[in-house]
Amino acid sequence: MPDGDSAAPVRTGPAPTPTFMDTSELDLTGRLAVVTGAGRGIGRAVAVELARAGARLALVARSADQLAEVRDELAAAGAVAEAYSADLADIATVAELGARIERDLGPAGVLINNAGVVGPIGPTDRLSVADVEQSFRVNAIAPMLLTAAFLESMRKAGWGRIVNVSTGVVAHPTALARGNTYVAAKSALEAHSLNLAAELAGTGVTVSVYRPGRVDTAMQGWIRDQDPDTVGGGLVERFAEWHRSGELITPAHSARALVSRLGDTETGRILDVADAA
Ligand SMILES: NC(=O)c1ccc[n+]([C@@H]2O[C@H](COP(=O)([O-])OP(=O)(O)OC[C@H]3O[C@@H](n4cnc5c(N)ncnc54)[C@H](OP(=O)(O)O)[C@@H]3O)[C@@H](O)[C@H]2O)c1
């Protein structure tokens, strides 16, 4: 992080050894947690961890069948969860969604903006405008708008936790050549997060970025399924090799590292699953 960044936590001396709380110690009883992309992958695992910590859940994604499965799983375990099937690429929907959730379930205390798309991938001069726009809507604009919808009630409560799920490639943009749109959109998301953290300093509402690591999800599978010749640059082959060599971590592993940080009061942080190792 550059010097003079007011959103950066003030530290003196060497960086502390990260200590990760067991999520079983985190008490979110009575809090409403909104998780986007909660139908599968990392978002689903995050919802499970939040429910374990006592939170009530609002689960958001497009696939109603996947959301229903997660809602039923959580309900069977004794948690309260509601499913909201919504397309986050649709700005009008997102603008209304926050108010709808709060009307139904009351004020939100936790917002995990996890939904994301990695496509389009491939040579930048062959990308369609529609695909580039879709990526920015889902990866950057929707989290900004959904966050805005919950800010008033979080500020009023003097407590809130907003986590925006990003990617480690923002720190190493050259590592994902042929993924230009994704890197650009997630970089925008991170800049938004740190800027908002500074704006909300002292309110009790924290804003963090979370980089989840290489996780074995449908998103990784989608990349492996692309045509290596069309994408080019050895990108598809590299993802296939990570899968073959067993390098990917589970969604539950990554989710636990995210949820374990929600007790922290520090804001404007970029959290990485690697810090939890
Ligand atoms: N897996 C990794 O290795 C990895 C690495 C770095 C960062 N990440 C980030 O982690 C987050 C979760 O990824 P994942 O790997 O768990 O992916 P995933 O399994 O593909 O899940 C993505 C979730 O986002 C939802 N989503 C996508 N487009 C949406 C839209 N237009 N409206 C509403 N919901 C939408 C999907 O549901 P529907 O399709 O049903 O809408 C799904 O629930 C993403 O932000 C991703 O960029 C993942």
Mind sketching the topology for me?
Blueprint: E1 32-36, H1 41-52, E2 56-61, H2 64-76, E3 81-85, H3 91-105, E4 110-113, H4 129-157, E5 160-165, H5 180-199, E6 205-211, H6 218-224, H7 228-231, H8 235-244, H9 251-259, E7 269-272
Parallel strand pairs: 1-2, 1-4, 2-3, 4-5, 5-6, 6-7
The structure holds NADP nicotinamide-adenine-dinucleotide phosphate (NAP).
NADP nicotinamide-adenine-dinucleotide phosphate binds at residues 37, 39-43, 61-63, 66, 87-89, 114-118, 138, 165, 167, 212, 214-215, 217-220.
Question: How would you explain this protein's 3D organization?
Answer:
By secondary structure, the chain is of the alpha/beta class. The protein has one domain (27-276): 3-Layer(aba) Sandwich (Rossmann fold). It has helices at 41-52, 64-76, 91-105, 129-157, 180-199, 218-224, 228-231, 235-244, 251-259, and strands at 32-36, 56-61, 81-85, 110-113, 160-165, 205-211, 269-272. It has a seven-stranded parallel sheet with strand order 3-2-1-4-5-6-7, sandwiched between helices. Helix 3 packs parallel to helix 4. Residues 1-21 have low confidence and may be disordered. The structure holds NADP nicotinamide-adenine-dinucleotide phosphate (NAP).
